[in-house]
What does this fold into?
Amino acid sequence: TPTNTPTATPTKPPTEPPTYTPTATPTNTPTATPTNTPTATPTNTPTATPTNTPTATPTNTPTATPTNTPTATPTNTPTATPTNTPTATPTATPEGFEGDIAPRPNGDGVVLSTDVTQMRRFATGLDTVNPSTNELQRADSAPRGSGGDGALNSGDVVQTRRYAAGLDPLTGAGGPTVTADEQLRAVIGGSIFGEKLSKDASLRLSNVKDGAVAVEFASVRDVAAVSFRLKYDAMKLGKPSVSLGDLPEGSVLTVNDTVEGELTILIDSADGFGGVLETLRLVEISFANGSAEGTVILDSVANLSDLFGNDVRVLVGW
It folds into this structure.
């Protein structure tokens, strides 16, 4: 049988009375009475009395009296007289220039009074052109537009004068290379090649005292040159003498009397003559045997030219 071991009765340990920890009485920390920091009384900084800086009395800088610089009197620079740049003379071609016929036979590249003189000699037959050069082309300068017409007459004299005076610019030689038959150019009985011509100008022969004769002229156009030929009885009349008639001052008379019984006469003028249908006396011709009876004939071959070297149609013996 089991031994009953007695159940130990638990011994209650004595409950110790709790120890009261006294609550600490809070010590009232006195609130610090704030010390009134006295407001600093602002020290009135006295406003600085501005020191009146005396305004500087401006020193009157005397206005400089301008020195009258005398206006420079402009020196009159003389206007430069323009140098006339000479018109460049065209370079001569191997053929030369129209109208350039002196010195013979090739000319000298310019047209001067010497060329006019030589042209007068050609027009009156005192000289004949050299066929071994182109002297005919250079001498035969009128009409200018065609470089000549194959005849040397008063028109070529006028045109050469125009070249010499600078009225027309120099032109290279051209035109016909052979002489035309002057008989084909003659005006006979008021017709040429069978066509009736209007009378622009007329030439006629008239008798004057002591056996002298005169060649008279009338034209409705200004004429600058006229050339004509007369034939006379040299055995009866003797040597002729020719003088200018009623023509403008400066008219030039050229006479070829080298052929016995024949006179070729040229008259040219820079101013021209005619222009009205009144009769002018071109020349008077007297003969050594003035009282002798003889025959004088005005040849039908005559030539008149205007101021530009153009032909003026002429009727011989009106």
